[in-house]
């Protein structure tokens, strides 16, 4: 009879309820009666449990065993009792024995990270990479094995053993994972918003020091693009597309503390990452949530004996591809032909051209001269342990990367420490701190420039004929490519180009359980950052063009401090019918302030010990300074109601008041509402065995973007370059150059989201699909003013933008014998349209090549930053084609054209080719993007593949503008693509390459579709093969786990793009979408080969 009672099924969900209340619910469902002494069993102690369709035996064990309460079943009566005094006395005298073994899953594969604890104590350990463990335990005690997503198992200790084998099975109820959300956590099944998760293990698969770059290809709706292949250059991330013509960066939250950047972390520091996408998830962050929110949970200590983890890798990087350029002989042939076609005499460097042709010279390979194989290393050591009352973690990491362009590199050193303390049964606290030191070489001109890009540009443009090196360590003047600096000299100068950053990020928290179901949490975080770029430019003379008359030192020091203090209460209540209600109410204060000073000092000594501003011997030095101070005061609330795990409703409201704006517009309200239906929990689907989860959700709300506005953007701007006359005497003065706008406020994003979550076939297959719309209102743009005002336009909230999109994420995991596999794919399609510029003119931008001018336009009815220029229609193959390309009155449309010149489309039909014929040429915004991953494991071996790609994107190949040119620029001849050897000539009239000429009367080199290329690509971002050593292979080494691996990043890229890298673009405009997709020969990403290890001891 007793066994039958224990086998009956019940469903129980309680959160922080007393034993007395919990037992009352169990008794009601199971139709039993509990007999116990409230004093002996501690009936006021709190428990939390979530069991669905579980046996009474399992529920009782889960509730009572951790509290050391024993029970006996007599018919339908359950008698509870505390352990006897005599039993405790006997236990205290038991002797410890050594227990070793291995924890495996149902397929026999070792499980790392399983917690093994002696029941009723804080003594414990964790399993190693192959599932092995060793610990000391009292004889006749009980070991408890637990792991997220698996049923807990208890194993008695009967004596010393070295071959204990424990098999854990999946717990379907536990598979309902808990994810981090704003100011709290939630079960994934309870979410009404769109939230994506990425584990810390996934982030360490790619060789990078940037946690954001490690997200690439992992999440639907999240575009991650490297700013550059230069070490330490950073990464651009866009959640659900570009939301504004201004700042589209998401908000980052690290362990509950808001920050604008996470570059102070390494991927190995992160436990998990959640990305909040829609208003139901982001509205709790109000005026900073419009572009999405990235929540970072860092690694913290785990209870048990101190566990050391040592990991590292070393390898090298090389340029993935070089561009095919002309040899010296080919170059000379093209330049000579250009002068001949124009009917002009050869230039003064004709002897060099003729010699190169006569000797069929190969010339100088400048790409080889400036590039190298760069070393990359990363090592990390951490120690974690403690008791359930005090858990700690200490870690140190070092990352070094030498760039593939000489004299460029990056070093990063990170120290982290955290401690979590249980002060009393009701009070918990914790502190954490991270110190990061970065050193970048070849990193800028001291004012935000990026010199290594110019190194590569000069390498591409410089002619291959002349040797850049002179005798005795000197440099030769380039008399052909007259505007290019001597490449090796300029390259050598980059060693004086350095930036150092220091960052201290600290956080603390205090948790107090006030009463049953009500808790209070206070967090405080402070972030200190200083930045020190320093560039020395030595004096030199090579020739009249390539010289620097006096040395210069450009040095900047910036210091920024910000703090965030959050205080909020969480209330939860579960009702007898298994419905629940929860609420969050809080207040938050933030402040940030900083200052900077920069100096440009001239005539500074070359001696390294004297390279500082006060050593300058010049009286024309320039000093600049800046400062800011801003604050944000907020109140927020969220309420959730869950009716029997079927119907869910979430409402959120935040009030923000910011110092960025004036008067009444500094206050904003940001509401959202979300709802979800767990269809799979309905009775009519209860018997559908293959369906585990089916949930439909929808949300609507509005969030803000205060970062779209600059500090003090509401104020007038004055310039000091004005001169006034007083009684005929000139005097310097100020003049208003930009009108103020006291009504300037934050941008607002109104978002709608409809999503579907499903898990099928015993949770092997999971699917998430979302359709969303984000309408950006009050977008900050320039308000047109009449010309007679005589001032620059004011910034105003006059623009509007719309993003509509579809996201799909599919994951399948299963096993065949000992082979386990996991396949994941994601897909994102976003339609971006500017719907208003407030009546202002289209915004022209993308002027990264001054000889071209602006290359992009942002206008109503199109996506942001589309390419704008003439539409090329091929080549005039003969004079007849020129003569027949006429307007209505028979006049030639291109009267200056000759055979071999480019034919342009007369877009407006006026019979002449002018700027009025410029038209849409595509954009850097892709039609869709996608990612895919494959993980395989078999008998200790593992193999991983990560793919990422975009389709339908174009890039304006600015490098090709120089390399594909038809004419020279004011007598300056740079190198050519090797394909220019197939140019039009009378004997090659069917070529698609225009002729070369030293003049360009037809305008062959105007910005046109000739330079806009398909930049779609599929990239094998990473491939990795690893092996986890078994305990037997480790032998007598004092290791609890070991894994070795070999990995390759950027294995291959499938693309039609002829530049270095279809992903890299807009290097000069990292945070501006207005030049998106413009590539002018930027620093490409490298292919990386690594050999690494992970050790536990």
Automatic annotation (TrEMBL):
InterPro entries: Beta-barrel_TonB (IPR000531), Beta-barrel_TonB_sf (IPR036942), CarboxyPept-like_regulatory (IPR008969), Plug_dom (IPR012910), Plug_dom_sf (IPR037066), Secretin/TonB_short_N (IPR011662), TonB-dep_OMP_SusC/RagA (IPR023996), TonB-dep_OMP_SusC/RagA_CS (IPR023997)
Pfam families given in the database record: CarbopepD_reg_2, Plug, STN, TonB_dep_Rec_b-barrel
Membrane topology: Multi-pass membrane protein
One term under GO cellular component: cell outer membrane
Biased segments, Polar residues type: 985-1005
NCBIfam families: OMP_RagA_SusC, SusC_RagA_signa
Protein name in UniProt: TonB-linked outer membrane protein, SusC/RagA family
């Amino acid at each position: 009879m007793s066994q039958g009672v224990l086998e009956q099924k019940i469903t129980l969900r309680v959160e922080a309820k007393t034993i007395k209340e919990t037992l009352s619910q169990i008794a009601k469902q199971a139709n039993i009666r509990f007999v116990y002494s409230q004093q002996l069993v501690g009936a006021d102690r709190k428990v939390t449990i979530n069991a669905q369709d579980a046996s009474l035996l399992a529920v009782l064990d889960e509730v009572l065993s951790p509290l050391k309460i024993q029970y006996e079943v007599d018919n339908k009566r359950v008698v509870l009792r505390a352990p006897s005094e005599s039993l405790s006395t006997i236990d205290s005298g038991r002797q410890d024995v050594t227990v070793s073994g291995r924890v495996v899953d149902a397929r026999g594969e070792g499980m790392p990270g399983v917690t093994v604890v002696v029941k009723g104590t804080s003594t414990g350990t964790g399993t190693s990479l192959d599932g092995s463990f060793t610990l000391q335990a009292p004889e006749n005690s009980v070991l408890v094995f637990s792991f997220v997503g698996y049923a807990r198992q208890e194993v008695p200790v009967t004596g010393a053993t070295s071959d204990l084998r424990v098999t854990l099975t999946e717990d379907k109820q536990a598979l309902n994972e808990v994810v981090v959300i704003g100011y709290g956590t939630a079960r994934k099944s309870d979410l009404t918003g769109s939230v994506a998760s990425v584990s810390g293990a996934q982030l360490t698969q790619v060789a990078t020091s940037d946690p954001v770059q490690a997200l690439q290809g992992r999440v639907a709706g999240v575009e991650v693009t490297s700013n550059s292949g230069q070490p330490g250059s950073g990464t651009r991330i866009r959640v659900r597309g570009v939301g504004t013509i201004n700042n589209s960066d998401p908000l980052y939250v690290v362990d509950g503390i808001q920050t604008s950047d996470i570059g102070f972390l390494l991927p190995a520091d992160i436990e998990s990452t959640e990305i909040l996408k829609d208003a139901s998830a982001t509205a709790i962050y109000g005026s900073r949530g419009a572009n999405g929110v990235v929540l970072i949970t860092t690694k913290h200590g785990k209870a048990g004996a101190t566990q050391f983890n040592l990991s590292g890798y070393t390898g090298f990087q090389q340029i993935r591809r070089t561009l095919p350029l002309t040899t010296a002989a080919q170059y000379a042939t093209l330049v000579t032909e250009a002068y001949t076609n124009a009917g002009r005499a050869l230039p003064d460097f004709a002897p060099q051209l003729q010699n190169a042709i006569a000797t069929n010279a190969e010339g100088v390979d400048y790409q080889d001269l400036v590039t190298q194989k760069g070393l990359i290393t990363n090592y990390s050591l951490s120690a974690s342990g403690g008791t359930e009352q005090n858990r700690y973690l200490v870690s140190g990491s070092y990352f070094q990367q030498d760039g593939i362009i000489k004299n460029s590199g990056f070093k990063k050193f990170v120290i982290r420490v955290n401690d979590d303390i249980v002060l009393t049964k009701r009070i918990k606290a914790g502190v954490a701190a991270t110190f990061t030191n970065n050193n970048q070489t070849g990193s800028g001109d001291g004012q935000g420039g990026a010199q290594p890009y110019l190194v590569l540009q000069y390498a591409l443009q410089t002619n291959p004929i002349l040797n850049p090196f002179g005798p005795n360590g000197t440099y030769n003047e380039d008399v052909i490519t007259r505007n290019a600096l001597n490449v090796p000299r300029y390259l050598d100068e980059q060693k004086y180009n350095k930036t150092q950053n220091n960052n201290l990020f600290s956080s603390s928290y205090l948790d107090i359980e006030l009463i049953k179901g009500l808790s209070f949490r206070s967090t405080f975080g402070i972030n200190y950052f200083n930045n020190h770029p320093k560039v020395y430019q030595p004096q030199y003379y090579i020739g009249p063009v390539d010289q620097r008359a006096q040395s210069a030192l450009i040095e900047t020091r910036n210091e920024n401090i910000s703090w965030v203090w959050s205080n909020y209460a969480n209330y939860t209540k579960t009702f007898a019918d298994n419905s629940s209600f929860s609420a969050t109410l809080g207040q938050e204060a933030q402040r940030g302030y900083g200052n900077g000073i920069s100096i440009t000092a001239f005539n500074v000594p070359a001696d390294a010990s004297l390279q500082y501003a006060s050593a300058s011997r010049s009286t024309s030095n320039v000093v600049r300074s800046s400062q800011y101070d801003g604050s944000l005061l907020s109140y927020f609330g969220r309420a959730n109601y869950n009716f029997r795990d079927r119907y869910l409703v979430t409402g959120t409201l935040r009030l923000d008041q910011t110092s960025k704006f004036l008067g009444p517009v500094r206050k904003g309200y940001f509401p959202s509402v979300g709802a979800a239906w767990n269809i799979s929990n309905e009775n009519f689907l209860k018997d559908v065995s293959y369906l585990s989860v089916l949930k439909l959700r929808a949300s609507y709300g509005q969030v803000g973007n205060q970062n779209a506005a600059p500090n003090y953007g509401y104020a007038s701007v004055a310039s000091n370059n004005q001169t006034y006359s007083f009684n005929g005497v000139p005097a310097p003065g100020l003049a208003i150059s930009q009108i103020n706008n006291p009504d300037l406020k934050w941008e607002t994003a109104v978002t709608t989201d409809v999503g579907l979550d499903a898990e099928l076939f015993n949770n092997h297959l999971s699917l998430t699909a979302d359709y969303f719309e984000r309408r950006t209102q009050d977008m900050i743009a320039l308000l047109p003013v009449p010309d007679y005002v005589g001032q620059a336009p004011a910034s105003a909230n006059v623009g509007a933008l719309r993003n509509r999109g579809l996201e799909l994420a599919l994951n399948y995991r299963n096993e065949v014998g000992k082979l386990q596999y996991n396949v994941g794919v994601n897909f994102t399609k976003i339609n971006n349209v500017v719907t208003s510029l407030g009546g202002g003119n289209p915004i022209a931008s993308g002027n990264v090549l001054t000889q071209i001018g602006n290359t992009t336009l942002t206008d109503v009815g199109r996506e942001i930053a589309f390419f704008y220029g003439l539409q090329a229609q091929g080549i005039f193959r003969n004079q007849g084609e020129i003569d027949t390309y006429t307007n209505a009155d028979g006049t030639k449309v291109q009267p200056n054209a000759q055979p071999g010149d480019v034919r342009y489309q007369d877009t407006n039909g006026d019979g002449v080719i002018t700027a009025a014929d410029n038209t849409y040429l595509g954009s850097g915004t892709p039609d869709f993007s996608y990612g895919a991953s494959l993980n395989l494991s078999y008998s200790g071996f593992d193999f991983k593949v990560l793919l990422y790609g975009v389709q339908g994107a174009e890039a304006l190949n600015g490098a090709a503008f120089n390399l594909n040119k038809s004419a020279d620029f004011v007598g300056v001849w740079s190198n050519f693509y090797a394909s220019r050897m197939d140019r039009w000539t009378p004997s090659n009239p069917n070529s698609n390459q225009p002729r070369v000429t030293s003049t360009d009367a037809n305008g062959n080199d105007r910005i046109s579709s000739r330079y806009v290329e398909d930049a779609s690509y599929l990239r094998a971002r990473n491939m990795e093969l690893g092996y986890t050593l078994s305990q037997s292979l480790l032998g007598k080494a004092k290791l609890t786990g070991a894994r070795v691996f070999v990995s390759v990043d950027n294995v291959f890229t499938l693309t039609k793009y002829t530049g270095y890298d279809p992903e890299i673009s807009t290097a000069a405009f990292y945070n501006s979408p207005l030049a998106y997709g413009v590539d002018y020969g930027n620093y490409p990403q490298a292919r990386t080969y690594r050999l690494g290890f992970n050790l536990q001891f």
